[in-house]
Amino acid sequence: MLGNSQRLAGDYPASAASLTQALDLSRAARYRLGEATALANLGGLHDSNGDDLAAARCYQQALAMFRDLGERSFEATAIQYIGRIHMRAGDFASAHRRGPRLPRRGASHLPAGWHAPGRSDRPGDIGLSYLHDGSLAQASGCLHEALAIYQRIGAPDARRIQQTLHDHTLPAPGT
Q1: Distances 156 to 25, 129, 165 between C-alpha atoms, Å
Q2: CATH code at position 27
Q3: pLDDT band, very low/low/confident/very high, at 43 (cuts 50, 70, 90)
Q4: 99: closest CA among 74, 76, 117?
Q5: What is the largest CA-CA distance in the chain?
Q6: What pLDDT does 28 receive?
Q7: Most buried residue, 9, 29, 116, 126, by most Cβ within 10 Å?
Q8: CA-to-CA distance for 38 and 29, rounded, in angstroms?
Q9: How far apart are CA 127 and CA 139, in angstroms?
Q10: What is the H or E stretch that residue 81 is in?
Q11: What pLDDT does 140 receive?
Q12: d(Cα 38, Cα 9) in Å, to the nearest integer?
């Protein structure tokens, strides 16, 4: 948490030192969840610095570890971050393949009060990438799924998704 707070405050060197220390300590203790989390957070630091290649490497390593550990919510977050890198690069097809949705279990496995930390990390933004790409059926499916998740967990983003669906007259899938 310290490394993330330092990153958010703009102190990237201190953040890098704290996150690297967290990674080293987690590895020494053979605490794989801590290691995966530190890698994901280092990815966030590289992402903040605009180093997409380094960010993607960290996110990919974290993703593999989250999958091995069965940490589905962290896996979903890592997939979203990787998809965001693809979206920024204009590679919408890869962004879609990275995982347009949260795991099929829905949001019931997410901690109470969960919300994604940044605008482009949000589940509905994959739907927006489909919309941008002209893939209306996929956009509708993702946006409606995101809306259901947001409504279920009481997230304020539900209103943003509702407005997007209304603005683009996207019907619910199957209607």
Answers
A1: 37, 20, 15
A2: 1.25.40.10
A3: very high
A4: 76
A5: 54
A6: 97
A7: 126
A8: 13
A9: 4
A10: helix 72-88
A11: 82
A12: 18
